[in-house]
Amino acid sequence: MATFMQCKGLTKEFAGRRVLDGIDLKVNQGECVVLLGPSGCGKSTLLNVITGMLAADSGTLACRGRTLDDPANGIHVAMRERGFSMVFQDFSLWPHMTVSENVAFGLRMQRVNAPHRARRVQEVLDQVQMGAFRNRRPDQLSGGQQQRVAIARALAVQPDLMLLDEPLSALDARLREDLKHELARLLRETGLTAVYVTHDQAEAFTLGDQVAVMNRGRIEQCGTPEVIYNEPRTQFVAEFLGASNLMPYRRNGSSIVIDDGVLDLPGNGALPAESGQCLVRREAICISSERCCSGDDLVELPATCEQTNFLGDRHEAFATLPNGRLIRGFADGAVNRGGAVHVRFPASAMRFLSD
């Protein structure tokens, strides 16, 4: 797949604090790359450097072979000359304009003639299911409808790259869920290349062909949603994605000792590092009041149930191991708070992260 945009060694500082610290990122043609991370990790700053709102302090940014930022050589292409579209979390619609006029605004700036402009506006409004609202003003629309209009406005100009900065965060949970899937459909159908910023894992996994997990101004790991979830490279990625149980381990020859002798497993396949953290996802752990028949791949630990939470379709359970470590999993049958339970998971569910 052809490389559409590439960042190499991008840095940015504010008042002596480094917000972007050597960012390397590649975006392929037709892909949606999601920048995922907690507040303050640098994801919105990186998006603003890509848009041209901010100039990088060092490193390079190129799109389709054209250098957009290269401070060492005095290059910074202005935002208006980059050919990108932006969707913000606060909608940013003109309150005095109708839906059609808002969507047509960028086309007017491009000096598109009136007949073609009208056709294009209707086309994108139909794509976001807002054709029937073309004559309304923003204050006559719900939050979800306003964001659909903002997306239509961004699509109308047929941008080289679409940039979305937490566009669903101002919506309620049900609207976020609906619009998330509609955005994924639109990106697939239009074949647009996009960079999407969010702190929400579900959005990232639904929309992203590639997900770049950011922390403290750096990209900790970039890959498909399946890879970064199932094969995290760092403790931060393991803890940030999903519900995780992390237990310190050390390797003793070809065996793995977990939690200072609580569990000793024979090593299988490639040996992990000498020491680190053993990761087991919540969904891999079964917490039950009954023992089960042991198997070659099954790990079973004695524990005490601390609490259970009803999640609608099942119960989440928390159990404490004899050494005091809290384990999070799902209850298998009835478990009682304070009662003896057994924590079970397949050995194949373990992932090892080196120190």
Automatic annotation (TrEMBL):
One GO biological process term is: quaternary ammonium group transport
Q: Which InterPro entries match?
A: AAA+_ATPase, ABC_SmlMolc_Importer, ABC_transporter-like_ATP-bd, ABC_transporter-like_CS, Mo/tungstate-bd_C_term_dom, P-loop_NTPase
Q: Which UniProt keywords apply?
A: ATP-binding, Nucleotide-binding, Transport
* Chain ranges of the ABC transporter domain: 5-241
Q: What is this protein called?
A: Iron(III) transport system ATP-binding protein
Q: Which domain of life is it from?
A: Bacteria
Alphabetized GO MF terms: ATP binding; ATP hydrolysis activity
